[in-house]
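**Folding the chain**
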Amino acid sequence: MTYQLEAEISRQVVDLCKWISEGSVPRIELSMSLTRDLRFDSIQLMQFFSGIEELYGSLALEDWFIEYSSGARDTIGSVVSYIAHALPFAKSEFADDAPFRSQPPK
């Protein structure tokens, strides 16, 4: 897995969080918890899960959330790591034709 791949995933996940929070959080960092720091409610979490599925080809986050939701371990960084390891090409070089979008889903 490359640094460039994780950096691109990080950027997209942060952009998605900004879109969902509607700018209510001035600075979003990888160490922030979706539920404690960003205070995502159940509807916002569903928007987040749907956005990730749309961005990454139906990648489901249920297993990640079950494992990381307790103790505010549901950080942006942990979801970035989960996505990077779950992508089928994560171990190969980051390709320009990767299925990433530049904007959060609408």
